[in-house]
């Protein structure tokens, strides 16, 4: 019988926290996911991030902690089949990008990009802003690019609710 690891949850021992840096999210977790390598500690759920409303994300997290932060892997949904624009609409709202993309560095080399999104209820452009924030990370890896490995097949997301 196969076990669906995407639905299993993990509780960390008291005192332990899962707080990877931006660099760790990109260089370890996202790179391993894209390359199909296993994790020592499987802390990040794989979901279709834009099929879930912001308030449903905590229940989809593999980690069950008191922290108001959740991590996910997701494939990006392109708005148009051959385009680069991402469809960030959910059933009841949408994730709106804010600010400019920021580089994630390892030493002085760019290894990824980070985009910040805020959840809005309703439809653009009249949606109502909420306190739900998400950061989308994508990998930039010259070695994988030279090997012909597609790097935008997955992104890693860090979601939180701000007070």
TrEMBL record:
One of its GO terms (cellular component) is nucleus. It is found in: Nucleus. Keywords: DNA-binding, Nucleus, Transcription, Transcription regulation. Pfam families: NAM. The keyword Transcription applies. Coiled coil: none annotated. It comes from the Eukaryota. GO terms for molecular function: DNA binding. InterPro entries: NAC-dom (IPR003441), NAC_dom_sf (IPR036093). The keyword DNA-binding applies. Residues 12-162 form the NAC domain. SUPFAM superfamilies: NAC domain. This is NAC domain-containing protein.
